Structures are given as C-alpha cells and as structure tokens.
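User: My collaborator sent over this chain with a note saying "see what the structure looks like." That's all I know about it. Can you take a look?
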Amino acid sequence: MLQIVNKLKDQHNFTNTEIRIADYIIQNITKIPTIYIEDLAKLTYTSHSTIIRLCKKIGYDGFRSFKLAISSVVYSELHLPGEVDANFPFKQEDLTMDIAKNMADLTIDTVKKTLAQLDEELLQSVAEMLYNSERIFLFSRGDSQVRARSFQSKLIKINKFAIISEEYADVAWNASNLTPNDCALFLSYGGTSPHNNRILQHFSNEKIPTILITGNSNSDLIQLATKTIVVVQEEYDFVKIGTFASQVAFEYILNTLYSILYAKEYRDNLENLKKKQLLIEKGILSEEI
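Assistant: Without extra context I'll predict from the sequence alone. Here is the result:
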C-alpha cells in the first residue's frame, strides 16, 4: 500500500511541475481522498492533464484510480495502530499527520498495555480503600500532579474531596495530619523518591492506608505501601521527548478508579448531578443571575 507513496517520493524522472504536484500530495496526503482534480490543479498551479500524466507515470490509469490507492494508504496510516517508540514517538522529518498518528497509536497502545497489567481484585480493593476513607491525600509532583488535580476535580462530582499534599509546600504538615481513617495516594512513575519513602515509612508506622501507582516494579516504595498498582511502560526516566506513556497510563488508571467509585452509587450520583447542575446553571449559583 505504501508503494504509491514511495513512487511519489522517488522523483528522479519527474519534471519540475510533477515534483510540485507530488510534494503537495505527500504533504497533504489526508486531504487527497476527497479532493477534486480541478482543486488539486489550482493548489499546485498546474493543469488536469499534468496531474493525469503524473498518475499514469507511476502506474495508474487516471486520477480516480490514483485517489483510490491514496485512500487505502490514508486509511491504514490513520486507523491501523503501529509500533511507536514511547520515548521518541516522532522524528524531525515527520509530517504533521504522521506525528498525530504516532501520538494516537502511542495513546491506544499505552492504554491496552495498562489494561493488560491490571488485576481486578487489586483494582476493586483500591477503589474500596478510596471509598471508605474520610479524606484522600494525593502525593505527586511534576506532570503526575496534573493527573492528580484532574482526579481531584472529578471526585468533587461525587462529593469526595481530595487534598493535593504538595500544594503550597505543605507536604510535611499534610502528612503529619493523616489518620488511619484517611487514605494517601502516591503517583510516582519512577518510584525512587527518598522523600516519598520517608512519608510512606511514617504512614506504615501509623497504620495509615496508602496506595502507590508506579511504573517501577522494583521500587522500594512498594514494600511500604498498603496497595500498589504497577503499570510498566517502555519509557525511560530521563532520555525522552516527554512523559507521554506514563501520564496516559496514570490518567487511565485514575479515570478507572473514579468510574468504579461513581458506579458504586450510580443512581444517587446521577440524581445529585441533575440537582447540582440545575442549581449551578439556573439556580442561585448561576453566573447569569
């Protein structure tokens, strides 16, 4: 299927006009299946006959059969997942839609890998721990704290209020205030933080329930946590463009935990949603009043 793209890139016997057409098609390949020949001619400052001549030169009997071949390439490139390096999911020479496709593939592949590593009994017990806790304290830094804040925002919808422990640099004070009726959730992909180690040691001594979500199956934090969800991704600690896979995995797990909590009181949560939405949109809390 990709043979047609290779033919368009192999321009040694193309005229300058044909090169201009081929370059435009390669750079805008996702638009070609729905483009009309007259529009392509205008966009490349060429003519119908020149485009048809190019199509025949690379083995097609006309623009229609050429478009069908391009459509097959676009479908396979956009809809069939491929292997993507989690640390370097795109290269300098990649086109815009190549990058978009790679990021989509990486996201899908990460979620599938994370799902395959989840244990139903463990997931349920972690959700129960969160459900039964009076307060939830979230321990996370950097990109992981963005995931924690998203989780915190969702929990408000079911009348559970989580505290970002690192906020305002008050992590030690927050840690000292937890009781066995609370729950601490740690997000640490590397799982190597000495600071988290000390906090978890304190919680373990005080018999405070803790949950660790990490990508390091050899983390020293695991033996200190009450429950641990390990989601290993093919992502390095430092040599990478961004924390794509690890954060997709964390987001997926937290969304799953929130959904399990929501489902436990599904009808009540829906009723409360309707009442609160009405109050916020049309009641005294409405910004329009």
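A starting point for your reply to your collaborator: The chain has two domains: 3-79, 120-281.
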